[in-house]
Amino acid sequence: MKRRTVEEVMTTEVVTVAEDAPFTEIAETLADRRISAVPVLDAGGRVTGVVTEADLLRKEEFRPDDLGQRPLRGRRRHHAFAKARAVDARGLMSAPAVTVEPGATVAEAARLLASRGFKAAPVVDGDGVLRGIVARRDLLSVFHRGDDDIRDEIVVDVLVCRLWQDPSEVSVQVRDGVVRLSGRLELKSLIPVLVRMTAATEGVVDVIGDLSYERDDTRFSGP
Q1: What is the dihedral of CA 84, 89, 95, 99, to 10 degrees?
Q2: Which residue range or ranges hold the BON domain (predicted)?
Q3: Is the CB of residue 119 less than 8 Å from the CB of residue 53?
């Protein structure tokens, strides 16, 4: 089955800053480029961290009031306060950066962003050198497949090549990414397998199964 990789969907032109980039330069970069975060690179082009809008806002969060009083700080706020005092990317960035490799699948990247609550992640090679950036909108490109393309993959790759089923016995209809399976399979145990593999096909939004079987192989028959 086809599995698109991060390398196929990532953006290769990435806005970055150096570790010694000053606070104001980073703030202007985010505002001018209308982005919410920027990777920080060392002299060798390796990603050492990421500065986000939230990191910059620490400066305002801990700004003294008119009487010179700063917000109360507990032990858990010490790290945030340190960022509020930072004047360059090295002090502002979150490190180490959460990154993804070019060969990771789109599904793996999607799970990473979802688990961390990130909008994007830098893409780095085995040496940590920046190769691109992948955002949520890039990952959505897997749904930009035509219905005919999705159907062909299910029929050829799933039914014929992986399950060894006669495609004339199963109807595969796809409309707007929703797949409807109907017909007869040889074994009952193959029904959930076909549904699961169809759902795992890139571009599939939902699967509707209306399948029967010739033989129930899920029941144990004693000697």
Answers
A1: 130
A2: 147-215
A3: no
CA distance 93 to 61: 16
Q: Is 77 exposed, middle or buried (0-12, 13-18, 19+ CB in 10 A)?
A: middle
Listed residue (202, 197, 176) closest to 185, CA to CA? 197
pLDDT digits (tens, 9 = 90+) for 194-217: 999 999 998 999 999 999 999 999
Beta pairing partners, 49: 40
Domain 6-141 sits in CATH at 3.10.580.10
Architecture of the 147-215 domain: 2-Layer Sandwich (3.30)
Which residues neighbour 221 within 8 Å (Cβ) at sequence distance 6 or greater?
A: none
Residue with tokens 């945030």: 80
pLDDT at 220: 67
d(CA 40, CA 89): 7
Cβ neighbours of 125 (radius 10 Å)? 14
pLDDT band at 81 (very low <50, low <70, confident <90, very high): low
